Amino acid sequence: MEGVLVIGMAGERIKISVPGYSDIGKASVKALKQEIVGQWPKSFEYDQFYLLFAGVTLTDKNSYNEEAILQDYGVKDGSTILMVIRLNGGQAKRYDQKLHSSFLTKEADVITGDDDPDSWRGKMSCGHAVDPDMLTGYSKHELEKGRLDVKCPECKAKWGFTEIREKALLDQEEQRALEVMWSKNAIKTTKKCPGCQSIVERADLSNLRVHCGYCTKSFGRCYDFCWRCLREWPKFGPTTNKVGCGYCINEKDLSLFLLANCDEIDLPDCKIGQKVPRVRACPNCGQLCEHNTEACKNIMCVACGKEFCFVCLMFTSICCKEGGWHEKCSRGVAPRQTVIPTLKS
User: Fold this and answer.
1) Which residue range or ranges hold the Ubiquitin-like domain (predicted)?
2) Which pLDDT value is given to residue 293?
3) Which of 102, 285, 286, 325 would bridge with 304, disulfide CB 3.0–4.6 Å?
4) What pTM was computed for the model?
5) Domain end among 54, 85, 116
6) CATH number, domain containing residue 81
7) Is residue 288 domain-shared with residue 306, that is, in the same domain?
8) Residue 46: inside a domain, yes or no?
9) Domain holding 121: CATH number?
10) Looking at the structure, do residues 31 and 70 belong to the same domain, yes or no?
């Protein structure tokens, strides 16, 4: 039982025979390939290589879809066969099909759209698939933006850290980096009390005047501080707690305060059916504007010249296509603005 000479891994030449066949030519191509897999265990799977003899590929089936025999290709004892290994596309991380079988899929990558059938991807809890390298890079990118959550780009479902750690195959360095970024993003909503240096956060996000019970007890007096500038709240500071302690009030703060606290008015010449805030910020440039309660619901900004609806805050060209100048807006009354618009080109 002489066998054939196979040039395989790392150029190694090994003589291989097929048990039960004194004449190697009568063995099937499949049987020979199975013997080859056994010579290099755990190096590759059966379907990850093919054989070449005299420039011809040895296929498992012949043209009649029958099991191909080596002698059909002219192979005999002493022949030299070249093994060609199929390499998958570049992928720094690769799933273990046994260890990670519970979430492996060949579905297209939700981030890149890659649907290479030779690459395994991880199925996330939301049902979408992603490559481990892409999941690592995407998570890092999202956290670098300062976000507290990493969400699926398709359905916006949250991907938790433990799931990302498992399915992105994070090494210790990558895991440490993501943990640090995640923690830093979380503490962006916290500050240090200027009195005791404790890490604190506000229970009431609309209140810039914060009371520290620990400092009050330590100092023997009421201790409040300004969340914006971290100075102790002055004894004769502003009574309002929404625009700062007096040291840090600026024009933008006052504008937001006015938008949030102005009274409401009726537009008697319009069929609105409800009141609207007296003050609005121009949706184009942010200039504060008031309506004189006369004529139609649209006004022109004195700063940028843009005309907009005082009710729904859409530009007049859009609002009046959906309804009349005096009619109720299809979008309804816009809520009080909490952000000052910036000038648009």
Assistant:
1) 28-90
2) 84
3) 285
4) 0.39
5) 85
6) 3.10.20.90
7) yes
8) yes
9) 3.30.40.10
10) yes
Beta strand 224-226 with 209-211 is antiparallel
Angle between helices 172-186 and 132-144 (to 10 degrees): 30
CA distance 304 to 332: 25
Structure tokens, 44: 């590759």
pLDDT of residue 114: 86
pLDDT number for residue 89: 56
The alpha carbon of 145 is separated from its chain's Cα centroid by a whole number of angstroms, namely: 10
Neighbours of 27 (CB within 10 A): 21
Query: Following DSSP, what letter does each residue of 310-332 receive, concatenated?
Result: TTT--BHHHHHHHS-SSSPPTT-
User: Into how many domains does the chain fold?
Assistant: 4
Question: SS3 of 72, please?
Answer: helix
The boundaries of the domain holding residue 49 are 4-85
For the chain of 345 residues, list the mean pLDDT of each consecutive stretch of 10: 82 89 92 89 79 90 90 92 76 82 93 86 95 92 87 93 94 92 80 91 86 94 89 71 66 76 86 87 90 87 88 89 81 90 70
Whole-number pLDDT of residue 203: 86
The answer to the question of residue 50 being in a domain is yes
Instruction: Output the pLDDT for position 90.
Output: 54
3 state SS of 262 = coil
**Strand, coil or helix: what is 125?**
coil
109, 129 Cβ separation under 8 angstroms:
yes
Amino acid 107: pLDDT: 94
Please tell me what DSSP assigns to residue 83.
E
Please report the pLDDT score of residue 55 as a whole number.
Answer: 82
**Tokens linked to 170:** 């994070």
Backbone phi, psi, residue 115, to 5°: -125, 30
Residues 302 and 268 occupy one common structural domain: yes
- Is residue 255 one of the residues assigned to a domain? no
Query: What is the sign, positive or negative, of the torsion defined by CA atoms of 209, 214, 217, 218?
Result: negative
Select from 152, 168, 187 the last residue of a domain. Answer: 187
Contact status, residue 343 vs residue 285, Cβ threshold 8 Å: yes
Vertex 204 angle, CA 200 and 208, to 5°: 75
Same domain for 288 and 236:
no
Establish if 345 belongs to a structural domain.
Answer: no
pLDDT at 251: 62
